[in-house]
Amino acid sequence: MANRPMSSIFMQDSISGSLVGDLVTGAGPVIQECFDLAALGRTLPDRHFAANGRHYQVTFHAAADRNGDVSEILLVVLDVTRRVQVEHLLRESRRRLIATARRDHLTGLLNRRGLDNVLHRELRRSRRVGKSLSLVAIDIDWFKHYNDSLGHPQGDACLYSVAQTLIGCLRRAGDEACRYGGEEFLLVLPDADIGGAATVAANCQRAIDELDIAHPSSPFGRVTVSFGIAEAANGTEGALVALDTVALLAQADNALYRAKRNGRNRIEFAQGS
User: Fold this and answer.
1) Which of 59, 65, 73, 272 places its Cα 20 to 30 Å from the Cα of 128?
2) What is the assigned CATH class of domain 2-84?
3) Is 210 marked active-site?
4) Residue 31: closest CA among 60, 69, 53
5) Exactly one of 176, 183, 231, 268 is catalytic; which is it?
6) Which pLDDT does position 261 carry in this prediction?
7) Identical fold between 2-84 and 102-269
8) DSSP letters along 140-178, please?
9) CA 217 to chain centre
10) DSSP state of 256
11) H/E element holding 206?
């Protein structure tokens, strides 16, 4: 209960006997606001506060004297710690669910849904700040033969190793790797021109060579990868970001196809890059 000269309020547990000012931030103005609202016949808003690791909800109720004037404000305090904890768990579960839905279950890389979100966002940002964005398409050479000859468990192990190697070659916070489908991967490289993307691709190629994963069906005798690189350069024009996304993916994919056609285990660039 709070009179105009503020008094202590009675509660259970460790906050019993505490002053209003100890529990409600800015208690003086809050209580005065309650008196003012009550005098106008208005509803008194609830407040929330935390004390000693617990969460509380406070409801205010006006009490009138014999003349009908508001003389006191009653505070009813409800411990809502459990509710707050459950709400926090639900928010975290939803966040993890959304994150999981955007990740490939085998490699941990972004899946196609995750790629769509990242690529749309980064294309918008690159247009806004006037910087380049590069996309690197990657394909494991002769992977179907590898899978058929060594079995799917070995194929999955190969995919995982390549994925982790690609992640290890991305040194900047904004770079992202995606499993685009089957044995194909994509790297999204914000603020990177064609030269920077080529350096990243070369580093990836060298790192995968160093894995030295035996591939009996490959003329190289080991697992190798092919690369296709496309760049959305400064000032790229387009009516819709989605159209830019489709065009950039198509350019990188065409460059990748050319790398495979020209012997594989090589880096090719989108025409005009």
Assistant:
1) 272
2) alpha beta
3) no
4) 60
5) 183
6) 96
7) no
8) ETTHHHHHHHH-HHHHHHHHHHHHHHHHHT--STT-EEE
9) 39
10) H
11) helix 194-211
> Among all chains, which residue has been given the structure tokens 């350019």?
251
- Sheet arrangement for strand 133-140: 176-181, 184-190, 133-140, 225-232, 267-269
Residue 178, Cβ density class (10 Å: 0-12 exposed, 13-18 middle, ≥19 buried): buried
On whether the 102-269 domain is CATH 3.30.70.270, my answer is yes
Cα 200 off chain centre by: 23
- CA–CA distance, 246 with 232 (Å, rounded to integer): 11
Q: What is the pLDDT of residues 98-155, one digit of tens each?
A: 566 678 989 999 999 899 889 999 988 888 888 889 999 999 999 999 999 999 999 9
| pLDDT tens-digit readout, 110-119 | 999 899 889 9
pTM above 0.85, yes or no: no
Which residue type sits at 165? T
Q: Determine the Cα–Cα distance for residues 88 and 43; give it in Å rounded to an integer.
A: 29
**Rounded CA separation 177/24 (Å):** 48
Residue 157 burial (10 A CB sphere; 0-12, 13-18, 19+): middle
Question: What is the residue extent of each domain of the chain?
Answer: 2-84, 102-269
Cα separation, 243 vs 135, whole angstroms: 15
